[in-house]
Amino acid sequence: MSPNVTGTPGSQSTLGPELPGLFARYKGLVEVGLSRAVPESSGDDIFLPLRYHLGWVDREGVPAGSSFTQGKALRPTLCLFACEALAADPDRAIPAAAALELIHNFSLIHDDIQDQDLERRHQPTVWSLWGLPRALVAGNGLQSVGDLAMLNVAGDYVPTETTLRVSQILTESYMEMIQGQVLDLDFESRTGIVADEYLQMIAYKTGALIRSSLEIGALLATGDPLAFQAFSSFGSSVGRAFQIRDDFLGIWGDQTTTGKAAGNDIRRRKKTFPVVFAFENARGKSREELLRIYGQEELTGRDVEKVLDILDEVGAKDQSYAITEASAHEALEALGPITLPTWAQREAASLVGFLANREF
Amino acid sequence: MSPNVTGTPGSQSTLGPELPGLFARYKGLVEVGLSRAVPESSGDDIFLPLRYHLGWVDREGVPAGSSFTQGKALRPTLCLFACEALAADPDRAIPAAAALELIHNFSLIHDDIQDQDLERRHQPTVWSLWGLPRALVAGNGLQSVGDLAMLNVAGDYVPTETTLRVSQILTESYMEMIQGQVLDLDFESRTGIVADEYLQMIAYKTGALIRSSLEIGALLATGDPLAFQAFSSFGSSVGRAFQIRDDFLGIWGDQTTTGKAAGNDIRRRKKTFPVVFAFENARGKSREELLRIYGQEELTGRDVEKVLDILDEVGAKDQSYAITEASAHEALEALGPITLPTWAQREAASLVGFLANREF
After folding, report:
1. Number of domains in chain A
2. Which single residue of A2, A275, A337, B157 has CA 20 to 30 Å from B235?
């Protein structure tokens, strides 16, 4: 049975790029969880860079005003949604939701070191302000704060066994994420990557934590293995839709909404889905051009234009759309075997539609 | 009541530098735990650098022969010892012991990145072989492998509640370790550090994981809070003795046993205990010299000689000895309130004596 969802997943005409109501619905809970989990900073300690990275304070520790959390808080939102959709009070998932956001942010701090990125969310990155050694330990610190939040999820409605299980799921998915990062690093020095390999890599790198967010939310609500499996599959497909859309925006996104220059991922020679697809499908002179361009240390504006032309020629844009839409559809199909309240079905469709069509 | 120990803690004449029997006693268990915890490598994945770092394989993945584990495996040995000293089968602590060794090794991989060290244990460091991005994720991977081992300690004799508690203790102590790393980084750019501050820093940076190793071993054996407290205090003192001896060896150690050049820590401008003590106690021209020398980016051989003279002048060597011996004594005192079998009392004394007097 296919879930009775409103709207057409993946259809840009009916689903706008606004953040679905789900994000606003859980924003307060995510903030509560995060502020409980992350210790105050006494100034010159590990917690100042963490609070800065989370967008709470400036580099001097001065509160940053209204923008309490930056970013979409996708993972905690998914976790709280799964929990409430399965008829449990989402309050019990607050520490878990915070943990997921913290683990995600920890990976961003380390990503910025690896990629030597100077800016994130229009602000200087942690390593660019505090240097590599401190950013490295700050990232590690954020992970531990997250791990500890998850270990502390036990409470009136969450038995110890479940707490242990969700901590294991988090750690296992985090190891998959690392495995994905390693594959991604391998891809940098390879040209023969095929689309299937790429999809496997992002299933680890991006998909695992998104999937585990939903698994954890489901497990905190119910011991029903069918519900767990449904949200797990939902998460895998959501992760793919999310990442391929991310790849799309990294090349064809609007700078004013993404905060990144158009063609940014090409300039940085990132082997995201459209480029991998082009490498697999370009023939003759186009293929030679691709090999030449990606064989260089730095790309000129002309190189970027040329790559964009080749992506056009092989239909990489359409293919990216197609995979995103198929994944969005599969996500909702995955919820088919279980019965969810109407509001949850509607929110799932709205969420998936947003992730597949978002402009930011 | 003071424990009835044989031997005189901290007395070099009676206690040689050989590794106490305790290490050999638990070596097999530690190896079993580690090989269960760390997945096989399929070649080009995260686990090759991990297995290499642990000394199991060379950089190509070829088994390294007889030297299954390198390093002393101090933390797992302490954990297994606490467990068995409290009359429990140490087998139940095997996953925890492995976790502690993995977390320690994870911190070494990241330390080598931070310090840009090219060698560890006479081998090229992970980052120097695989590059920073891969070493960074390899370190993170090792931490997760460790976390997962600890989360899997539950079994016939370890209830879920205890598993959750030991995972929390591990994570909390790991956060203290990070806090110590941050303080240590701060010290690099400061000159007014006093000995007390330094001792607080190492209580976090080195002491926390050593202390938690013993706490975890105790908790896996018994729910008795007195036993937990005794091993916790024992661990804090052991940690201090261990680190101050480490600092001693970093300056006055024999290159053939430590694997590091004599005066190595001075050449690297490390503010270890003897140097901090000298900064606090040197007066007049000696103090000016210290400030001048440590104000430079690089130290000459002559600078190193000069610092060694000043350390001599202020009695830094004797003071390092004195603190190590006092800590060793306090460690054994801490076990006083509990009753331990004779073998355990003897092993505790032997262990403490070794840590305070070791040459490697």
Report:
1. 1
2. B157
- Cα–Cα distance between B294 and A327 in angstroms, integer? 59
Q: What is the pLDDT of residue A121?
A: 83
- Chain A residues within 8 A of B186 when measuring between CB atoms: 44
Residue B69 lies in a domain: yes
Closest CA to A22 of A75, A76, A81: A81
> Is A14 a domain residue?
no
Q: What does the angle CA B80 – CA A141 – CA B121 come to, to the nearest 5 degrees? A: 55
Band (A264; pLDDT cuts 50, 70, 90): confident
Tell me how far apart the 2 most distant CA atoms of chain A are, in Å: 65
ipTM score assigned to the predicted complex: 0.87
Q: Which two tokens stand for residue B117?
A: 């060290």
For residue B3, give every residue at least 6 positions away whose Cβ sits within 8 Å of its Cβ, in sequence order, or none. Answer: B332, B333, B335, B336, B340, B345, B348
Check CB contact under 8 Å for A133 and B175: no
pLDDT of residue A43 exceeding 70, the answer is: no
Q: Mind telling me how many Å the CA of B31 is from chain A's nearest CA?
A: 22
Q: Is residue A333 in some structural domain?
A: yes
Residues of A within an 8 Å Cβ radius of B: 44-46, 110, 113-114, 132-134, 136-137, 140-141, 143-145, 147-148, 151-152, 154, 160-161, 163-164, 167-168, 171-172, 174-175, 178-179, 181-182, 185-186
Q: Which residue has the higher pLDDT, A359 or A242?
A: A242
CATH number at residue B86: 1.10.600.10
Token pair 């449990």 is found at: A88
Assess whether pLDDT exceeds 70 at residue A67: no
Residues of B in contact with A44 (CB under 8 A): 186
Instruction: Indicate whether B281 belongs to any domain.
Output: no
- Asked whether the CA dihedral B278, B281, B285, B291 is positive or negative, the reply is positive
Residue with tokens 């903030």: A31
Q: In angstroms, how far is CA B252 from the centroid of its own chain?
A: 18
Q: Within chain B, which residues score under 70 in pLDDT?
A: 1-17, 43-44, 66-70, 257-262
B63, B114 Cβ separation under 8 angstroms: no
Domain that holds residue A35: 21-357
Q: Do A106 and A139 meet the contact criterion of CB atoms below 8 Å apart?
A: yes
